[in-house]
């Protein structure tokens, strides 16, 4: 094979000094990149040329079907992964279940064209009364149409169902610290230890020595898990008021049906959204959450 032949590959991890690329034969290469192509991130499908048995040069990035952004320490949005299909919003009883945070994740996922799935973890740690209460609170999201699954990494409860959902998708787990994201990922990847070891050997770095996002293949299917411990929140600051409203899935049948085209959905007569809340077609809890998110986005934008 010619060393200058263009190939396609998937970015497993992107570092400052090089990028780790997997080809279609699952071989790993440390690649440099041409400066003209812009930022390369985990999950990118790239065109590259092999230079020798272990290295190459990235020449172009294939169009991304989705991106995941989060704020850096200065509050600026930074792309950390691309081509994600599903985002698992991991919640638990402790830290306290926070519907407002779930709603922020959902707004970001909807606007990033990602399929959100809510995952209640650590169900082995609370009694039936608490479990019943949490299920009732999450029923709101099921009624809207979001899948909700229940898991315990310790007891392996619900993991078969979870792995089925991971099949043939690029997946990422988000949530507060302490909800058990890492335990879930480690349990799911147990059968992939050989592959993880190979990736660690290729990078020269241990799995937990960096906050760089990694794309890990799942052994039994074509799915992947992106492990990025730093992903606790998405950036919403770039969203418009229309984007925030569109991030509430149950609002969509009513958007565009207000009496006034420039309706701000606050107190205007003939507002289709306000009428839907009044008629209990949109829950008051979600409506108040929408107002809080909108206010916080506008406040950050003014700073």
Strand content: 15-25%
| Uncertain segments | 206-210
Give a quick account of the main beta sheet: strands, pairing sense, barrel closure.
Answer: 6 strands, mixed
Overall average residue pLDDT: 87
Give a count of the beta strands, DSSP E runs of length 2 or more.
13
Annotated CATH topology of the largest domain: Rossmann fold
The CATH architecture category of the largest domain equals 3-Layer(aba) Sandwich
Briefly, what CATH class of the largest domain?
A: Alpha Beta
State the helicity in percent bands. Answer: 25-40%
Feature tags:
six-stranded mixed sheet; Ribonucleotide Reductase Protein R1, domain 1; globular; Rossmann fold; 13 strands; 303 residues; 29% helix; OB fold (Dihydrolipoamide Acetyltransferase, E2P); five-stranded mixed barrel; alpha/beta
Task: Describe the protein in words.
With 303 residues, this protein is an alpha/beta fold. The chain is built from eight helices and 13 strands. The chain has helices at residues 99-111, 128-144, 159-166, 181-188, 193-203, 241-246, 272-278, 284-302; strands at 6-14, 19-23, 28-33, 45-50, 55-61, 67-71, 77-82, 86-91, 115-120, 148-150, 170-174, 214-217, 224-227. The longest helix has 19 residues, at 284-302. It is globular, with a radius of gyration of 21 Å. Residues 206-210 have low confidence and may be disordered.
